[in-house]
Amino acid sequence: MLKLVRTIIIFFILFIWQPSFFSSYNNITRRVRANDVIKEKLRESLLLAKQEGRLSSIPDPTGEITYKNILEWLGSEYGDSWLQIKELVDNGKWDELKDAFYKDLEFGTAGMRGKIGVGPNRINAYTVKRAGEAIARYLLTPGINPEGKPFLITYDTRQGSKEFAELIAGILASHGLKVIITSSDKSVGWLSYTLPRLSVAGGVMITASHNPTGYNGIKVSAFYGAQLMPEPTQIITEAYKGVNLQEVKVMSIQEAQEKGLLVLLGTESDEAYLNSLIRNAYDARITPDMQKLVIVTIDPLYGANRNFGPQAIKALGYSYQIVNEHANIDPNFTGLRGPDPRLEGSTDLAIQTAGGGEWRMLTGDEMAVLLAYYYLEKLESEGRLPSNGLGIKNHATTNMLRAVNFLFGVGTMDVAVGFKYIGDKTFQYNDREAGENKTVLYGAEFADGFAIPVHSYEKDGLMSSLLFLQAISLWNKELGINSPQEVIILWDSDGDRFVPLVRPDSVAIKKLQQIEEELAKLSKEGKLPDYLYPYYRNTGWAITVEGIDAQQKINRILSNLMSVKIGETFFGSDFRVAQLITEVDGVRDGIRVVFDDGSSFLVRASGTEPKLRIYLETVSRESAKEAEQKNKYLRSLIEAWLREYK
After folding, report:
1. What is the pLDDT of residues 554-596, one digit of tens each?
2. Which of 74, 160, 227, 261 supports an S-S bond with 420, CB 3.0-4.6 Å?
3. Given this chain, do its domains 107-268 and 289-532 carry the same CATH topology?
4. pLDDT tens digit string along 14-39?
5. Which CATH number fits domain 107-268: 3.90.1150.10, 3.30.420.40, 3.30.565.10, 3.40.120.10?
6. Is the Cβ–Cβ distance between 442 and 375 less than 8 Å?
């Protein structure tokens, strides 16, 4: 009887008092039916487009793969993605549609990066969901994490970074995996320093580094703090291919916390990171009076170093002014083309804040030379320069580092492009995994990356900037200049890169010249090995290869380069080809053409963008001017050659 009364009451409430129930239900039903009709028409439009060849491309000649991928994304598991697809179709944006759907995103030089948007070749909640599931399966692979250690997750200031980080955390937790996630954005340097000290299985950072606005990505790190190497990355890649989104479960952050699977990390680890920065940048030779002569302007470009940077610079003893307009979080990077210090317009506000005038941006190669020289000199002055020291650089970075290392009795190793190779070799040697008695003292790359293993195995733009300020303070006195030295410091969105601007008469420029003079003196005395030179000039540039067939175009250019014959002159010039190098340290990474005078150029495909990158190095035993003239001449030849084969 009680059940009958309860049923009557519920019926009365729903259908007598709330007649809108029927109305709401009918509205939802009509909306679903209307959407089904629209989707069906969309399918018809897509089929017609495929038949007419509008979905065809070089990697997908029939358009069948693209078509099937689009149809899959019309399914309910992809939410409202169909609306974005419809918008592209309605506006006739077939090239954009093809590029978004002809393939899956791939893990490249530094993880998985891409434009934010709809489709399997874009960064969005669904591709991140697949990546999160793939990472979970990797961690559950026998032998990968036998102790069940937690996984550290953090993110930068880009659009969607925090949400993507929480999504991955929820997926890992749903598998019973323990997760530590930061409560705010952090830098790559912080992550690399913190990973081995928290005793975790590895880490993830949601970031696209210096890529343009509208990009994001996933960078996976090993437990020792460097980026994940190709072998474990391949496990994640294969797992990614097999993910069925309908089977992926996501636990809420709150539930994961309640079950003890997730720990929210606040500022607990920040102090240790900052202390490491100050401790490793400290130089007993430098006094407060020397530091006062260095006038610092900081521009964090809305990035993750906007908090750590000012704290560390002040703690080390320097005063500074900051570009306040760029010292907050803005995922749109308002006023910038992107969070890349080297993009046109990125320095405008900083220069204005610093008082205008003429400035010179140091190249990544110049920075590598200056930082390596200063750091080795610092270790020597402290009695900490080992006899088995080693500097590691990627093979696209200036060989002037070999000459600098020679001055300090330090060896040099080349690895493929990608700081993960530097980090992995550092781990092998310094943790004695390689079985060789070598101590890696630093790692450097042309792309504004520098690392000292006593701090981290990954590049840290903040550590680099502190070392640079100390170097300027020291050399200002040692070179007898003792005048105010202005420095502008810029970092990218995730803080791993540091780019400085200095005045044309800066002590940094003078120090580069002094190093050349030191090498020239040794060369004249016959004390410099034949494979080293006093003067190096390095230039690098990129060619953006547009279109869905970008990879095919890049492969064609590289294939044509392989046809260059040893002993022949290059493109009718006086430069005779002495050697073709197609791999470094066992890794195929572009093609290097070496000339008989010691100059060379490397051509390789970017691992993060649809670009072909060219790195040119010219050398001279006679003068900087000769090296510069060679560089300009060879660059013109290379550009002409590329135009011919493009």
Report:
1. 888 888 888 888 988 887 788 999 999 999 999 999 999 999 9
2. 227
3. yes
4. 555 555 544 554 555 555 567 888 99
5. 3.40.120.10
6. yes
